[in-house]
Amino acid sequence: MKKNWGPALIHLFFWGFTIVSLVPFILVFMVSISNEDSILQNGYSLFPSQISFAAYQFLFNDFSEIAKAYSVTIISTVIGTIVSLLITALFAYPLSRADLPFRRTLSFYIFFTMLFGGGMVPWYMTYVNMFDMKNTIFAMIIPNLLLSAFNVLLMRSFFATSIPESVVESATIDGASELKIFYKIVVPLSLPIMATIGLFNMLAYWNDWYNCMLFIDKPELYNIQYLMTKTLTNIQYLLMKSNSSAQVGELLAKMPRETVRMALAIIGIAPLLFAYPFFQKYYISGITSGAVKG
Q1: Which CATH code is given to the segment(s) 31-292?
Q2: How far is CA 224 from CA 77, 181, 234, in A?
Q3: Over the range 109-145, which residues count as b (16 or more CB within 10 Å of their CB) and which as e?
Q4: Residue among 282, 278, 271 at smallest CA distance from 73
Q5: Is the pLDDT reported for residue 10 higher than 50?
Q6: What is the number of alpha carbons within 13 Å of residue 24 lying toward its C-beta?
């Protein structure tokens, strides 16, 4: 009996691809726990010659600052992801209904925002002068509530192709309101696309440092990404000043630099690595249902 090696080769290929994809993450972690002198002498390596946690000790020297930044990031990410997902769903579902008046006009308006924007200056003045969000945590939540028109169109395609019209009509005949149909029928049947868009929103909020840079001046309101960006900027500034100041040069000689950069990357990305396995099943299903069928 002839064996079919096709599936085995495909699995082997993807296992190899997965291992290769993990190499950069492993390299970053290994460099972050390496001795600074060995990195400067021998370069990056997957197998560090000397183990050192000096980079993490340097970053966690003032743990309260990182803890505050993490708390701000977690609060803005959780609230922003939930609210933005709700707004996206409430916007996409009516657009998926064929009986919605001006459906094509509203869809074109959504698509138009993917091509053109109002500009940064009026955008900034609107949030600062009209909504008075300077130095508030809302400045890291509200500007990104409707993160992308692409998310709306992707969710609309899922609703239009994956929610049977007969189910909605049956619920309407039974006397269910539109809001009840949405929460009792549409949302439970749309968990794949909800998890997919939720993952997109979570990544956007977690990695956002730009809004913090624009709207936040108080260090206690810095999020983790902006705190890491500011730390790297300070290190680069010290490097430029090291040639003109002996005191700064002596300080840099005692401070880990390359390993700190990698440690910052690990601190910023580690929580997301734990979140991906929970979203993987729904993420794949949501992407294929919303994009291929649409």
Answers
A1: 1.10.3720.10
A2: 11, 39, 15
A3: ebeeeeeeeeeeeeeeeebeeeeebeeebebbbbbbe
A4: 271
A5: yes
A6: 5
Q: Please list, residue by residue across 171-184, b when 16 or more beta carbons sit within 10 angstroms of its beta carbon and e when fewer do.
A: beeeebeeeebbee
- Residue 72 — very low, low, confident or very high, per pLDDT cuts 50/70/90? very high
Average pLDDT of the chain to the nearest whole number: 80
Residues with Cβ within 8 Å of residue 163, at least 6 apart in sequence: 96, 185, 186, 189, 190
- As a whole number of angstroms, the distance between CA 190 and CA 161 comes to 11
- What is the pTM (predicted TM-score) of this model? 0.78
Question: Domain ranges in the chain?
Answer: 31-292
pLDDT in tens, 210-233: 999 989 988 888 998 888 888 777
Q: Residue 194: name the closest of 101, 291, 85 by CA.
A: 85
